[in-house]
Amino acid sequence: MEEIKKETTPVALELATKQREISVAEFFSKNRHLLGFDNKKKALMTTIKEAVDNSLDACQDANVLPEISVEVIDMGNDRFRVIVEDNGPGIVKKQIPNIFARLLYGSKFHTMRQSRGQQGIGISASVMYSQLTTGRPSKITSKISPRDDAHYYELHINTRTNLPEIKKEEVVEWKKDHGTRVELDIEASYAGGGQSIDEYLKETAIANPYASIIYTNPKAEQIIFPRVVEELPREPKEIKPHPYGVELGIMMNMLKFTKAKNLKSFLMQEFTKVGSGTAKNICENAALLPTTKPKEMSREMIEKLIDGIKKTKVQSPPTDCLSPIGQEYLEKGLKKEINAEFYATVTRPSSVYRGNPFQIEVGIAYGGKQPEDQFIRIIRFANRVPLLYQQSACAITRSVIQTSWRAYGLSQSQSSIPIGPCTIAVHMASVWVPFTSESKEAVAHYPEIIKEIKLALQECGRKLASYVLKKKKIGAELEKRGYIEKYIPHVGEALKELLNLKKDDEEKVEKLLHDILEKERGKLEEIGFDEAKNVEYDEEFAKIGKKEKKEEEEEENESS
Amino acid sequence: MKVVNQIKEIADDVYRKILRKKKPQLSSPLRSLANVKYGKEGYFELLGKRKTRTLTASTIKSFAQTLKMMALSKEVISQDDIATKREAYYVSKNWGEARFKEQTESDVVMDDIEAMLEVNREQLGFIPEEKGGEIAGKLIVVDKDRETGKEIRIDCTKFGSGAYSIPISVEELKFETNAEFILAIETAGMFQRLVKHNYWKKANCILVSMGGVPTRACRRFVRRLSEVKKIPVYAFTDSDPYGFGNIYRTLKVGSGNAAHINKYFCVPNARFLGVTPQDIIDYKLPTHPLKEIDIKKIKDLLKNDPFIQQHKEWQNALKQMQEMKVRCEQQSLAKHGLNYVISDYLPNKLKNAKTWLP
Predict the structure, then answer these.
(1) Residue of A498, A501, A511 to mutate, interface with B, max B Cβ within 10 Å
(2) Do B55 and A493 touch (CB under 8 A)?
(3) By the 8 A CB rule, do A155 and A167 touch?
(4) How far is residue A429's CA from residue A326's CA, in Å, rounded to a whole number?
(5) In a designed cystine with B186, which of A430, B76, B141, B237 is the match (CB 3.0 to 4.6 A)?
(6) Which of these three, B127, B162, B179, is where a domain ends?
């Protein structure tokens, strides 16, 4: 009886004692899969990817041709040490702990410009993962100029407060003029093949031909991806948001922090492509006074404002904020990786989804030794970053599936990836790539994006079709000629028997018949696969990230 | 040796074309119903359509095969030998890629060479497998002994219940007869009945068993016999589209496939005695329903056969059968008694020429 009484005390009171604010760090520590740390193999890959992405972004910001070194050391017991070092601009002393040991801290979230990192989660998530799996602090060294000291930090994240805990801090000797070095110990596992670091770094080299990457794998083998282009890509300009892309929450935030005194000047100051006329139109369409004070706007008014924006015609955003790889370099990259018969590349004009400018590029490599009877290979890039996971969830894959490849000479069953000796590379450059999750593995399915990718695929497809058709025609003609030639000796033999010709005459007849055939049917264009033709093909490069056949078989045997 | 020269001439023409770097070709008349006409000559005459074989993917194989076959023919003739159609097909098995897969293929090439040279198969040194047909009745065939060259007189009344076989080559045969007509019979069964009861003696005639569509030798034999001895020829077949359109039509005017030799290998003066569709009614004969294939054949004859198109009587007879929807066999006459055909049917029909078909 007494026990029942006890139970009648309200449960809510009891629960209240357990309720407290969940820190971001704590949340992510429990949801590590959202950040790409689902398993040990992927954790290694994500850690390196975040570090390399940051290095490439930093170098591009500083207008420095990137030289990046990646080292992975196997320390036994599923522990690996990852060291990534760059020649970027470095980080000022004060910011080092915040950047590496505080989630959602960064400069990129607030800017509208094409960059690899976006939310400021990446590297600090790796630091946290390291801390959770090995308990070791992350070791950061950074130097901003030859005149400055190099600062060395050992950091942890306080998972409750999402604030850095500095374990050690000192000035060190570093020969580099400037740059950053990150050293993390993590629990991981290493495997070659698809979706590996090797593959990731290779594809990174394809999409960033101006970078030089030196990679030392856990087997202590050094692989060098040399710089192919001695020129940085056009620096993507920062732009203000375009009104079409802004959602309610962001709009509320912008209104709260703006320095503008009234709605009209808020619109003109905070958005791209909004002049006084457009701002006036938006106010009219939203039925709001241009003089409304931004900070005093209610939620209903903000909803009306967003509605008004939708009704107003606003010029497309400028596109100089984008930095595509370019047809020439995309083709170079593909040629290095795949020895094919035919290459085609397309860079689409830039377009807009939700007010965010973006641009699609597609490259196709067809034929050569690529397998005829397998699904084609799709290589995906977002802002020059290779996407290795979640292929089926990605808008790029969806677009490939939705394109009818049969017309372009590949076989394809309904709603599936086409089959044929073909590789398709797709790059999406945007000030904001919409990923399906924080781990940035798949592009979200915006209709505008899918439409653009499909247009680019179709354009490449048409080029492919004309090649495949020509090849088929010539193939059919060759087959016919071969068939006719098969009977020429019999004609010679019969004439020899009929006219008692000499052996010489018989041979002459056969030779003349070949001549007549050539004359009648015309000269054949040389087409087809010449292994030696593609001088840019790099066999060693192509092997990277691909397991040896033997290895794979062994692995299969093990698993069975 | 005339044929050998013809063959050499054609081969030489091909050879010289090649030497002049011109595309060589062989051309022969198209052998099909679409390339014949039926007019006052009384048989299917060949028209001008030709097929050509040359250095194209679709014709090169038969181009080479035709030359090889011509070479074989030349060899056979030169050695005074013969080859059956089947043997020629087997010889081709030495030709590598140019060999024939089926005998039908080699037969076609052989017939094309015939047509190209406008000669008979036997002149090329090739002979068929099939028997030429059988003869019984008031006829003496004068042949020669193969070895001595001495005349042999074969009396076709003296085969008892057997019969004389028409040889492959009938060109050199001579005939002695006082028969009043020749009766060409479709089935061996009916032939046996008439022989057994010595019908030829009673009717003073020569009986021929065609055994289905008459062979070339059979057609040529009957043709020569009827021409030389000026005796009429009557055909006696089943009452069905096959009996009319294939057996009788080929006997009388030849075929599309043999269009190049019809001139000699048919019997234009033959008449159709029976069994006609009208006979089925008049003699109350037992019938079978027309099969799908029969109905099709009637339509095809009415639409495409130049011989049928020329004769209103035949068109009416076929249309009558179409309406009756039945066919009947010549042996169905047995319904009225086994010897009804001898005692009643044939005598009646012979007396009444109005019941015949042209």
Answers:
(1) A498
(2) no
(3) yes
(4) 11
(5) B237
(6) B127
In 3D space, the residue among A406, A378, A424 whose CA is nearest the CA of residue A465 turns out to be A406
At A194, is the pLDDT very low, low, confident or very high (cuts 50, 70, 90)?
low
Locate A21 and state its tokens: 């604010």
A24-190 is classed CATH 3.30.565.10: yes
| Burial readout B69-105 (b: 16 or more C-beta within 10 A, e: otherwise) | bbbbbbbbbeeeebbebebbbebbeebeebbbeebeb
Residue B71 forms contact with A (CB below 8 Å): yes
* Closest chain B residue to A499, measured at CA: B8
Architecture per CATH, domain A327-467, reads as 2-Layer Sandwich (3.30)
- For residues A427 and A207, the answer to whether their CB atoms sit within 8 Å is yes
Q: Which domain holds residue B38?
A: 2-127
Chain B residues with beta carbon closer than 8 angstroms to that of A480: 57
Inform me whether the pLDDT recorded for A551 exceeds 50. Answer: no
Between CA A158 and CA A261 the distance in angstroms is 39
pLDDT of B268: 93
- Please tell me the total count of domains within chain B: 2
A512 reaches B (C-beta below 8 A):
yes
The mean of the pLDDT values for chain A is: 84
Looking at domain A243-311, does it have CATH number 3.55.40.10?
Answer: no
Domain extents for chain A? 24-190, 243-311, 327-467, 470-522
CB within 8 Å of B184: residues ≥ 6 apart: B208, B210, B214, B222, B233, B234, B235, B236, B251, B267, B270
Number of residues written out for chain B: 358
- Of the pLDDT bands very low, low, confident and very high (cuts 50, 70, 90), residue A113 is low
H or E element in which residue B155 lies:
strand B151-155
Residue that is last in its domain, among B104, B127, B150: B127
CB of B101 within 8 Å of a chain A CB? The answer is no
B274/B349 Cα distance (integer angstroms): 8
Give the mean model confidence (pLDDT) for residues B55-72. 93
Is B8 in the A-facing interface, judged by CB distances under 8 Å? yes
List the structure tokens of A84: 């990534």
**Common-topology check for domains A24-190 and A327-467:** no
On whether the CB atoms of residues A30 and A37 are closer than 8 A, the answer is no
Beta strand residue intervals within A115-238, DSSP E: 138-143, 150-158, 163-172, 179-187, 212-216, 222-225
Predicted local confidence at residue A317, as pLDDT: 79
User: What distance in Å separates the CA atoms of residue B240 and residue B244, rounded to the nearest whole number?
Assistant: 6
pLDDT (tens digit per residue) in B245-282? 999 999 999 988 888 888 889 999 999 998 999 999 99
